Fold this protein.
Amino acid sequence: MKKKMLLMAVLLMVWAFPCMGIALQKVDIIDPVFTFQPVPEGVYIDHVFIVKNTGDTVLRIEKVVPP
């Protein structure tokens, strides 16, 4: 009887709190698309993209390549 009650309690906890203890990564990019205007050849231009970590764990950004 105790085993059944313990099993029921564990199953209830898993069902009621499915994400407890799981850290999730989430990122928000403010203005993710930027269109550069035509510039003369050899002119250096840059643009800053704002990346905000809205998850509940460390965000790792790796292997960034242009499209």
